[in-house]
Task: structure prediction
Amino acid sequence: MNEVPMIIYEGEIKSTFQDVDEAVKKIDGLMRQKFEFISSRLLFNIDFMLREILNNAVEHGNHFDEHKKVKCRVSYDVPKLEFIVKDEGKGFSTTDFHTESHDPRMLLRDRHRGHETILEMDFDVNIEGNQVTVSMNLNQEEKSWKINY
Result:
């Protein structure tokens, strides 16, 4: 077991959807390098989740202000893969839309569908102000991976 988490990606992203797209593609490539046998299903889920939380930070947190940055950190600490995204906005409370029972009907709402979809993909989501931490326990899936430290 590692004593220090492996940092897969750490950087600041300009508040544009184009920069989010470039960052997600870079992270995808790094994930493929570090985890040679990662499943395409998991890569799809990670791509979807990252785009959702980064786009939300750009749009709702930083209001497309290109002078504001979105910080993103992706790390792996056996068995947990963790994504931390922080914008320069005021933050928000999840009490307006959080549900303990992940009711699939929630996906049909006009707003907050991304949050519910991420939960349905077995990610754990913690939102504190202007920082979102998303994690996933990879204990089962990683057994077939070759991990390049």
